[in-house]
Amino acid sequence: MRRLIARVFLSCLLLCGTCLAAQTTATPATAPGDALLQHVLAELGQHQAVRADFVQTRANPALAQPQASRGQLLFVLGHGMLWQTQSPYAETLALTGKHAARIDAQGHAHPMRDARGVDRISQMLQSMLAGKLDEVLRQFNVTATGTPAQWTLRFTPKQARMAHVLENITLNGDAFLEGIRIAMHDGGSTDIRFAHARDAGPLSALERRVLGLP
Amino acid sequence: MTSTSPALKLRASLFAVGTLLVAALGAYLLFGRGQLAIQTDLLAMLPATEQHPMAEAAVQRLAHANGDRMVLLVENADDDRAKAAARALGKALAQHKVFDSVLAELPPFDLGQMVAPYLAHRFWLLTDADRTALATPGHDPARALARRLNAPFLDGVGTSLQDDPFGWLQHWLDRQPWSRSPLLPEDDLLVAHRGGKTFVLVTATLAGSSYDDTVQQPALAALASAEHAIEHDYPGMHLSRTGAVFYAAAARAGAEHDVHMVGWISSIGIALLLIGMFRSPGPLLLAFLSTAVGVIAATTVSLLVFGQIYLLTLVFGAALLGEAVDYSIQYLTARANAGADWQASTGLRQVRPALLLALATSLLGYALLGLVPFPALRQMSVFAMSGMLAACLSVFGLLPALLQRPARPLSAPPVRWARALQNFVSRCGHGRRGVRVAVLLLLLAAPGWWQLSHDDDVHLLIAQSVGLLAQEAQIRAITGLGNGSQFYLVQGTDTEQTLQREETLDRRLQSMVDQQQLHGWIGLAGMVPSQQRQQADHALLTPLLDHPDRVRALLANAGFRDSAIDAWLAAWPGTPLTLDAWLKTPLATPFRYLWMGCHAKACGTIVLPQGPDDDTLLQRAADGLPGVTLVDKPASVSQLFGRYRRYASLWLLAAILLIAPVFGWRYGWRRMPRVMAPPVLGIALTLAALGYLHQPLTLFHWMALMLVLGVGANYAVFLHEGEPHTVHRPGAMYASVLLSAITALLSFGLLSLSSMPALRDFGLTLLLGIGFTALLVPASRGVSADQP
How close is the nearest chain A Cα to the Cα of B162, in Å? Predict the structure, then answer.
């Protein structure tokens, strides 16, 4: 059950990742009539591929001090993302929506069998890109605050089971996404800060291969 | 006449009393024992194909695990409407007592319930990936820990970090079937989203068997009214359904339709024919009386022998009317032909050889049918044999007392037509012309034989409603339910050996999944590993956890609090998970049926493959594994059909060889081939016609050909035995044979319109075979004697 929640979290977060470069030229009428939200999505959707540096800080009741990891993220519209952790260890994960894989030092992809939730991520990703916010809106109440230059989107779970564990997810940013914060009811939280977000430019052969680009 | 009357009357009275007693017994057996003794479970009439009784038991088990419930999928393009409709459907169904339980809205439960039962066993359960990683030389636990702590976006979502710092249990739980279901709980419902539509699952467990009439009908009625209501309240709603109850109801409806159609049309047809021929309603009533005696006896005997009647038998029984009526027709014709000289007992003596010979050939044919170890065919054979015997006996016992007075001769025009046809065929069938005609017929037939093919697919026997199959396929695609007809049975001497053997099978299945030949599978060993495997997994963790100081340092370095470390270390070593304990947990409920239990030195468990149903591929996974059998009921039955189809062609030959000496003895060896020719040629021409029609031959075609031989031989016998007594009325005897043939065609021929493919094949073959034989039969008599 919690696995399900994990899946939905992950899906949602990926979608928020999508916000890095979400294509929202056809923002649906079903989305909340929130001009700011529309604007934010439209703004983020102008970028086909985005690179950013990230710092992820995680607090958990079992941990005396938070864990921090840093690395680089490459997000490619409609294809997924590469999550490259550089410290405290070096590892690259490819999350394409069809499958999740660990990329080894030689550039070989090792499928992660326990990552079946990516099917759903892919589906949600595609529907989001097709301009359908329905999937997200079924799971979350979304509120947008701030200005187009400095905005905050807050996702609060609608489903009781999920709300029992997850408090909320907060996204903030300007022209790019600046941060994601996931707050849990048990006091745990994951905070991801992006820096140096920029259009990705040409992708390397490895990046194209593991993300399944032509 | 008056001298024989009292004896005949006494015999008739005794016969009538006997018939009434049999009828009363039959009525009691059919209606008097609670539920109607008509079996609508199509599985029940299939032969036992599996060598091991546990495999047959598993087939039954699976049929009922998936069988005694309705699986419903509510579909709507509007998400809210789909969910509201599913809730309304669940509430509407729950009001009916015919459902034991209805699951639409999920009961509230704590997420901890999914994890808590496993905490005591967390050091004994590993996924393949973790096992491989831990067994790899140079495995770095610090690295594994860091990966878990710094996983993108989320940590500890399945299990908490404190309970499961390395995520081993979380990985293991992720691999459990309930974590991989395509249906997700959403708004307290089980929901899937496909193509912009929302699908919501509702299941209703029946308060009895799907095949029980007192459950089936109310359940379907309840669903129909609930469906009607929600269709009205939630426009755009579409409901897909699957479950044995729907198939059973469809099969029953089809069979009832067939029985009514075949029964009524043939009864009316036969009635019109008889009235036309005998020009009086009396013979008609007597013919039906004799047939009724046959049907009553057949039903009673079948119930006594089998305890229940299959749908197939019921439909076949309706068609049998046409053959049972032959005996009384012969007697009635004899009366009509005798004119004013009629004496009931003399007439009986006159037809006796013909009737007994005809009965013998029919019984022979049906007895051969009964040799097939296939419950449905056996029952049809017993039904037919007892029915024919009773109908024939009624001619000897009952009819003479009721047919004391002479009758008018047969209607003239049909006799005239019959005579013309008889003369024509007879002339064509003799001398050099006869040889030419025979050669021509065989030349015409040869290309037809050339085009014969065969098909043993069991689905030819069981025609499942196309609509229901499509709905089932859709539900399977959306919910990920297995197909249920193919599975592995894994057996061992005890629980441990059984689970170990399943793990061996699982390794092969996993490699098939890796090669994308299979979507997945569901088996108990994935949920409760063997003790051997758990010991091995535990041993992989021992080097680390047997050194608490190292673990403590590792976790402390990673930032864990001392209290969390203490709690985790205190849980080591825990206990292995046992099958018995697991089966008692609520989580096991949906999977309990997979465990066949242990009987007489053998335990068994079912493994359900999911994905393409390629039989050879699935078989390869079981090859060479001790105790592992792929059970594929449809394929096994198809194979069995194929085997018996091949035997059946030999049996037909054997039957011809059996009848030949009987005819040789009665009609002389020189005339025997001519008497045998019509039925044998009839069979040959029927085969050719089936070839031209591109009808693949099945076991049922051959069974029907066996009847063609029996019935066709009867016609030859009737003609031969009767002609000497009707010299004064040329054509009358052949007219009576044609009458018999037409009544048979009316009833058997109508089977070719049946909803059951097996009966359709049967009916078409009989239609062709009896038709050809009846036309050819005049050729079996000499020309010179009758046509000077």
Answer: 5
Q: Check the CA dihedral B717-B720-B725-B729 and report its sign.
A: positive
CA-atom Rg of chain B in angstroms: 35
Contact of B158 with chain A, judged by CB distance below 8 Å, is answered with yes
**Beta-carbon count within 10 A of A150 CB:** 11
Surface-to-core class of residue B26, CB atoms within 10 Å of its CB (0-12 exposed, 13-18 middle, 19+ buried): buried
**CB–CB of B411/B279 below 8 Å?**
yes
Distance CA B206, CA B190 (A): 20
Residues of B with Cβ-Cβ distance to A56 under 8 angstroms: 150, 152
ipTM reported for the complex surpasses 0.85: no
**Contact at CB, A58 and B162, closer than 8 angstroms:** no
Residue carrying structure tokens 């089932």 = B472
Rounded CA separation A56/A192 (Å): 4
CA pseudo-torsion sign B663, B666, B671, B675: negative
Give the CA distances from residue B215 to residues B207, B210, B227, in Å, rounded to whole numbers and listed in that order. Answer: 7, 7, 18
Highest mean pLDDT pick, A166-170, B58-62, B403-407: A166-170
DSSP state at residue B4: T
Tokens, residue B566: 């203490």
Q: What is the pLDDT of residue B656?
A: 86
**Is the CB of A60 less than 8 angstroms away from the CB of B161?**
yes
Residues 133-152 (A) with a CB less than 8 A from some CB of B: 134-135, 138-139
- What distance in Å separates the CA atoms of residue B211 and residue B43, rounded to the nearest whole number? 11
What whole-number distance in Å separates Cα of residue B203 and Cα of residue B205?
7
Whole-number Å distance between alpha carbons of B371 and B599: 31
B143 touches chain A (CB under 8 A): yes
Are the Cβ atoms of B153 and A10 closer than 8 angstroms? yes
- Report CA dihedral (B177, B179, B184, B186) to the nearest 10 degrees: 130
Query: The tokens of B309 are what?
Result: 């009647």
Report d(CA B422, CA B425) in Å as an integer.
Answer: 5
What is the number of other CB atoms lying within 10 angstroms of the CB of residue B1?
Answer: 12
Smallest CA–CA distance from B163 into chain A, residue:
A62
Rounded to 10 degrees, the C-alpha dihedral B506/B512/B518/B522 comes to: 10
Rounded Cα–Cα distance for residues B148 and B165 (Å) = 8
pTM: 0.73
Instruction: Select the residue of A1, A63, A114 nearest B127 (Cβ to Cβ).
Output: A114
Q: Which residues of chain A have pLDDT under 70?
A: 1-33, 97-98, 113-133
Residue A134 in contact with residue A127, Cβ under 8 Å? yes
Q: What pLDDT, in 10s, does the model give residues B448-471?
A: 888 888 877 766 666 677 888 888
Amino acid at B787: Q
Tokens of B45: 């009439």
- Hey, is B517 helix, strand or coil? coil
Cis bond upstream, residue B724 (ω within 30)? no
In Å, how far are A20, A38, A56, B186 from A132, measured between CA atoms? 17, 12, 29, 18
Amino acid code (one letter) for A57: T
B147 to chain A, any CB pair closer than 8 A? The answer is yes
Question: Taking CB atoms and an 8 Å cut-off, how many pairs form between chains A and B?
Answer: 121
Q: What are phi and psi of B42, to 5 degrees?
A: -65, -30
Rg of chain A taking only CA atoms, in angstroms = 16
Show the tokens assigned to B395.
Answer: 């001619």
d(CA B366, CA B369): 5
Q: Are residues B153 and A13, on separate chains, in Cβ contact within 8 Å?
A: yes
Examine residue A88 and say whether the peptide bond preceding it is cis (omega within 30 degrees of 0): yes
Among candidates A6, A67, A138 on the partner chain, residue whose Cβ is nearest the Cβ of B186: A138
Mean pLDDT of B418-439: 81
